[in-house]
Amino acid sequence: MNIQKIISLVTKTQGLIKNREMAAHVKEKGLADYVTQVDIAVQNF
After folding, report:
1. What domain count does the chain have?
2. Which of 27, 28, 45 is nearest to 37 (CA)?
3. Model confidence over 8-32: pLDDT tens digits?
4. Range of the domain at 31
5. Among residues 22, 25, 39, 41, which one has the fewest Cβ atoms lying within 10 Å of its Cβ?
6. Could you count the other beta carbons within 10 Å of the beta carbon of residue 7?
């Protein structure tokens, strides 16, 4: 993946990444393995 594609993806997902409300919702995926709603939203994107 080139740097321009990475910049584009970060720019498109910055609203999700900066969402503090979503970041506050943490789920446990496994033993010492946690995920936030931000992680899930970015992954789905």
Report:
1. 1
2. 27
3. 988 998 888 888 887 888 888 888 8
4. 3-44
5. 25
6. 10
